[in-house]
Every structure is written in C-alpha cells, then in structure tokens.
Amino acid sequence: MRIVLVGPPGAGKGTQAALLAENLSIPHVSTGDLFRANISQGTELGRQAKAYMEAGNLVPDEVTVGMAWDRMGQPDAAGGFLLDGFPRNVAQAVALDGLLKEAGLELDAVLDLEVPEDEVVKRIAGRRICRNDSSHVFHVEYSPPEREGVCDVCGGELYQREDDNEDTVRRRLEVYHEETEPIIDYFKAQGLVTTISALGSVAEVTRRAMEALPGQR
Ligand code: AP5
Ligand code: ZN
User: Fold this and answer.
1) 100, exposed or middle or buried, with CB in 10 Å at 0-12, 13-18, 19+?
2) 171 appears as a binding residue in the annotation
3) Cβ distance 111 to 4 under 8 Å?
4) For the residues 90-119, what does the mean pLDDT come to?
5) d(C-alpha 118, C-alpha 125), whole Å
6) How confident is the model at residue 215 (pLDDT cuts 50, 70, 90)?
7) Cβ count near 202 (within 10 Å)
8) Residue 217 has pLDDT above 70, yes or no
9) Is 129 helix (H, G, I), strand (E, B) or coil?
10) The pTM is what?
11) Which listed residue, 13, 95, 100, 159, has the most CB atoms within 10 A of its CB?
12) 30-41 b/e with 16+ CB inside 10 Å = b?
C-alpha cells in the first residue's frame, strides 16, 4: 500500500506514521526525519536544508523530490510506503504523481489529520525528540518517556527541536495553510482523501486511521 499522511505541524503525523507503518509492514518515509539525519551527519544535503528548516520554510523542491524518490526506491519500499511530510506543495504532488506513473505505480490513499491550532501549539511545545533518531518522539505530558530526558527506544538524549520555537512554529503553520493545504484538494480530485480527527489518544487516532484505509476495515 502507498499512503500519504497530511496534516499541520504537530498534528501527530510522525507518531501515527510509525505505528501505521508497523501495522502495515511498510517503511515510514519522513522527509523531515531524512533532512534531520542529513544535518546531524553533516552531509551536503543537510547543509542545504538547514537554514530553510530553521526558518520554518520549505526546502526547495529540487532537493526534496530527489531525496524522497530515492528513499521510495530502496528495496524495503518495493511493496509500499507511508509518506510523512511529503508531498508538501502542489508542485511536489505533481512530481510524485509523474514519478509513480512512470514506474507503473499509484497511491492508494491520502489521510488528512485534522487538529485545532491550539492543540497543535500544546503538542509542539511539549515535544521532545531523540538525538540519535528524530523519529523517536515523546511529549513531556502526553507521552512522557520512562526516564526524564532519556529515549525509551534507544537510550539517547531527548531534546527540543530547533524549529519548535514560537516564531518558527507560527511560520510553519502559515506555510502549511498557504502551500500544503492545497494538496488536499489536489488529491481529493483523485478521490484519494479521507479526513480524520487527530484529537484523542494516540491509539484512538491510529484506530481511525486504520479504518480509513482501503481494505483494512
Ligand atoms: P517535519 O519534520 O515534517 O515537521 P512538521 O510537518 O512540521 O511536522 P512535525 O514533525 O512538527 O509534527 P508531526 O505531525 O509529525 O507531529 P508528532 O507526531 O511529532 O518538517 C520539518 C521541516 O523540514 C519543514 O518545516 C521543512 O523545512 C522541511 N521539510 C520536511 N519535508 C519537506 C518537504 N516535503 N518539502 C520541503 N521541506 C520539507 O507529534 C507532535 C507532538 O504531539 C509529540 O510530542 C507527540 O508525542 C504528541 N502527540 C502525538 N499524537 C498525540 C495525541 N493523539 N495526543 C497527545 N499528544 C500527541
Ligand atoms: Zn532514540
């Protein structure tokens, strides 16, 4: 199955993507995590992405589309993948459609996570992620690690993301409304979108998401 997860920053895309990908035995492909891994490894790609991310702006499509498609071409993604944070504007959605078509593939579903802005702000303010792997995500109040400041998955140190400060979050929300939301209508025209509420416990949201996927009811 090939799935796209859309939603504002802090909606819980990464949290849900990890659980859904495990349930469905497909890789979780997060462009945000790929950029953060490149930044911590000090690669050229990371160097190109860093300033855009710190400002809350999108990394240019030329950099992003190639990186994402390369990840989708890895052997573990042959049977499908769950995209988290990509595509993020209409140009990326069109590029993805074209690349999939050339490869004789298509998307099966787009899940749109809906969450009020005040909840997003609370989720982002309390988020802590792991130094070793930014897909290890916690929340000081809603999903605290067993030991304060220590990742339950790998024992790494937890910290607050550089782009989780108030100004950058405001900019990320603007970018979401201006550039990312239009992809929902783009995919609606293909009959692919289901909107689900991302409020409630992590398990409740996972259950709603699973029910929204074709053939999973
Ligand atoms: P990215 O890493 O994709 O960030 P984002 O879209 O802003 O999303 P977040 O990671 O902030 O939130 P999330 O929805 O994954 O929430 P999470 O599960 O962590 O992108 C970062 C940057 O990279 C972009 O700004 C851009 O610069 C660049 N970039 C990435 N992709 C790009 C692309 N395609 N093109 C161009 N640039 C790109 O949850 C949030 C918190 O809430 C956590 O603490 C979690 O524990 C908690 N939580 C989750 N679910 C619940 C729940 N049900 N109840 C209570 N708490 C919950
Ligand atoms: Zn970890």
Assistant:
1) middle
2) no
3) yes
4) 97
5) 11
6) confident
7) 15
8) no
9) strand
10) 0.96
11) 13
12) bbbbbbbbbbee
- Whether residue 170 lies in the annotated active site: no
Ligand 2 (ion): residues with CB under 5 Å are 130, 132-133, 136, 151, 153-154, 156
What distances in angstroms separate CA 212 from CA 51, 197, 217, one per listed residue?
36, 11, 8
Q: How far apart are CA 53 and CA 5, in angstroms?
A: 19
* DSSP 8-state class, residue 79: T
Contact 90, 178 (CB under 8 A): no
Contact 67, 78 (CB under 8 A): no
Q: Whose CA is nearest to atom 12 of ligand 1?
A: 10
Q: For this structure, is 172 an active site residue?
A: yes
Could you tell me the domains of the chain? 2-212 (3.40.50.300)
Q: Which amino acid is at 66?
A: G
Nearest to 137 by CA among 153, 118, 120: 153
How far is residue 71's CA from residue 96's CA, in Å, rounded to a whole number? 13
